[in-house]
């Protein structure tokens, strides 16, 4: 597949209401082609200004968050469950068999509902810094499952926003959205540039930069939170395995760790994030 996908709403034959489609090569389904090809989708989706929402709950949350719908792809079972969304939307809705859905997407769409949504502009980091009290700052978190789980934890545990280094994965990639259960739509986020010099802007906005690390010499996170008092906190987390880079650690105000037992040296980044988010949310 080469070249940009056509806008399904602009393809001849797109009409209001569900439209049965039987051919996987139908150009109206172009937004949903090869969803398992990560490299392709990373290039295509931002360039086309779209992302894919999967599953009824995620689609509904995307709509409630104000993301416009380009089109929807449903199997017959889910066309009935999503009838209210179909009726209220002007976007084209395509109904396909589970077999056709699998041929188009490259995997078994067991939830039977996909929507191509339009991206909206990200807010400037400065705007989030002005309104937040508790932040997560992620550096080079490139695994979409981990990224989605971190967003879900941040939303559930009361953080106000997430800042991403330029090389972090796309929160709106299908897997991230799915794992986050759509919380990427409700929790504000922005790219922090330049990196890591942009961390100075976070500090100037009144935040104390707490770098999470397994280093035994780091301060217990509970102690760090007590010392913080009512001050603003920005919790910094790095990629799975390597953690924060030396440059990011050098920019931090303090290095903090989660105490471990039974000889365990660290947690998965998503698990560590959830524990740390709970701790800083208590301050």
Structure description:
This protein has 283 residues and is α/β, with parallel strands linked by helices. It folds into two domains: 8-118, 2-Layer Sandwich (60s Ribosomal Protein L30, Chain: A); 125-281, Alpha/beta knot, CATH 3.40.1280. It is built from twelve helices and twelve strands. The strands form two sheets. It has a seven-stranded parallel sheet with strand order 8-7-6-11-9-12-10, with helices on both faces. The protein has a five-stranded mixed sheet with strand order 1-4-3-5-2. α7 (144-156) packs parallel to α8 (174-180) and α7 packs parallel to α12.
- Name the helix and strand elements from N-terminus to C-terminus, one letter apiece: EHEHEHHEHEHEHEHEHEEHEHEH
Strand fraction equals 15-25%
Shape: elongated
CATH topology of the largest domain: Alpha/beta knot
Mean pLDDT: 93
What structural category arises from helix and sheet content? alpha/beta
Q: Specify the biggest β-sheet.
A: 7 strands, parallel
- E-strand count: 12
Tally of alpha and pi helices: 12
CATH homology-level superfamily of the largest domain: SPOUT methyltransferase, trefoil knot domain
CATH architecture group name of the largest domain: 3-Layer(aba) Sandwich
Percentage of helical residues? 25-40%
């Amino acid at each position: 597949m080469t070249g940009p996908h056509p806008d399904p709403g602009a393809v001849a034959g797109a009409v209001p209401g569900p439209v049965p489609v039987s051919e996987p090569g139908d150009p109206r389904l172009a937004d949903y082609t090869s969803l398992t090809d990560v490299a392709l989708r990373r290039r295509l989706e931002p360039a086309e200004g779209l992302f894919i929402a999967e599953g009824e709950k995620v689609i509904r949350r995307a709509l409630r968050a104000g993301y416009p719908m380009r089109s929807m792809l449903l199997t017959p079972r889910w066309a009935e469950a999503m009838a209210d969304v179909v009726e209220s939307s002007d976007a084209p809705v395509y109904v396909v068999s589970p077999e056709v859905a699998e041929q188009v997407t490259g995997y078994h769409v067991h939830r039977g509902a996909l929507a191509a949504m339009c991206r909206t502009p990200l807010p400037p980091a400065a705007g989030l810094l002005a309104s937040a009290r508790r932040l997560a700052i992620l550096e080079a978190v490139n695994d979409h499952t981990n990224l989605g789980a971190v967003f879900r934890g941040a939303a559930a545990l009361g953080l106000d926003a997430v800042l991403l280094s330029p090389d972090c994965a796309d929160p709106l990639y299908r897997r991230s959205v799915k794992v986050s259960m759509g919380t990427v739509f409700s929790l504000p986020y922005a790219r922090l540039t330049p990196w890591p010099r942009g961390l100075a802007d976070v500090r100037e906005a009144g935040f104390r930069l707490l770098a999470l690390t397994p280093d035994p010499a780091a301060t217990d996170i509970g102690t760090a939170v007590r010392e913080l008092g009512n001050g603003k906190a920005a919790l910094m987390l790095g990629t799975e395995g390597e953690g924060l880079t030396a440059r990011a650690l050098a920019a931090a105000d303090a290095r903090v760790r989660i105490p471990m037992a039974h000889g365990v040296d660290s947690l998965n980044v998503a698990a560590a994030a959830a524990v740390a988010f709970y701790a800083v949310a208590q301050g």
